[in-house]
# Entry
Amino acid sequence: MIRTALVLAVFGVLTLASVLPASAQLVEWPREDPPPPLLAPDVKFPDFELRRLDNGLQVVYVGAYEQPAVNVRLVVRAGTSSDPTLKPGLAAMTAQLLDQGTTMRGAQEIAQTIDNIGGAMGVGAGTDLSYVNVLVLKDSFDLALDMLSDVARNPAYAQTEVDRQRQQVLSEMQVSYDDPAYVSSIVFGRLVYGDHPYGMPQSGTPQSLMRITRNDLIEFHRNHYLPNNAILAVVGDVSAEEAFAGVARALSDWPRGVLPTPDLTEQPPPSNRLVIVDKPGAVQTAVRVGHLALPRAHPDYLALDMAVKILGGEGGNRLGSVLRTDRSLTYSASAEMAGRQFAGDFMAQTDTRSSATAEVLRLTVDEISRMQRERVSRRELRRAKDYLAGHFPLTIETPNAIAAQVLEAILFGLELDDLERYPERINAVTEDDIQRVARKYLKPGLLSMVLVGDASTFVNDLSGVGFDSYELVPITELDLSTVDFMIAKEVAQGGEAVDVRLQASGERSRLEQRFGGWDARYFASCDPDASRVPILGPS
# Structure
């Protein structure tokens, strides 16, 4: 009976629509704002204690007794920003191979030992740090420390593992470079940071990976993986004395060393560049817009982060309202701040259908400009505060999450008391603060803009919305080792060497048409010592 009634109701609506005159319109569904966030619970950050071993290792203990588990996390102050100029990807590979065999244990033994105790181990590198993380039940705490000590201090870097890891990353790159969202993000970083290490892809480039040798990995580890360059967090169901005693037993004999001189490469000035990465046949365009922002420890960081949340944070935000709700140009739009030690960035991002690319770019830039010009409303600020306050408990929900919070604070030179006072600090931000930081730090006239999609579908529309100048880079010619993004190549054609460096143009080069497509042979052929990379056509 219910099903029959429903069918009749739907049929009636369809029938009504069919007999209405063309000029008549059905009443639209009402548009409502998303419901307000739930009130944030009163959450207290766990107590912590900080000590330093004689070898310089900082150790932070946080008691967390909700689960019979302990998380041990070692952070080394050396991430991808410490990569040598010609070898981006070195820090990442150094970290990724830590658990793939040590001088005492093979990769299989490491994995089996962790599995046998029901634990988990993770390794990796970020922009400003590298890490080893071990999560175990409390009765395996001592074993976790022993495993972490071995992995962090004694990696073997066997040549077979180095070659395997290199090939794996190259294979992943082949897949990633076919994803407009990935390409747009790494091009944006390169555009914003220029030649600063922050601008290079964390995994490196095909060319740089081929340059990295086993000796490079050993040297990077020897220079950076030092106790006086590291922080260790112990979070979980152990007492403070148990934690500090265990760490001293496992790591006090780790010899300190001389730290390398930090690379003080200056950040580039903001630029007003629009780079289009042409991917023929793409049905959508990835849009990324932003510029340099503030270091994580800057006193205005929190207020600017809240301003960016109002622009494109979770829930009701300006970009989402304009691009999705009002104009149906995208499924989602967001903006975020990247917190880094020396300088961060802010980025607005969305994906849209190709035909709407120019309009979406214009509207995104306009909303950034409006953020600077117009005072935010009390309601907008309240939503941003409610979201951040409501999200905070999730950041300290597990031992691993707590460890990450504490280590980040220490790494970036923040006061640990700030973690305890975070909800209070959020509520202290005013509309005047948001207006002040937006006017001071947002620069709509100096934006870096990246579009990745089928350029033929939208380049002719750009001038109509105010973007008369752009740089066009065929994706087959994309080179992240240079801020010009173009590979300078030579191709033997009819006995002549041909320079394929393309100029900004609405036309695709005939050579790009002929030699289009990433090919496995391309990645395999990158000559570490060559200034130019050979073109190879499709198989």
Remarks:
- Residues 1-32, 488-539 have pLDDT under 50 and may be disordered.
- The radius of gyration is 26 Å.
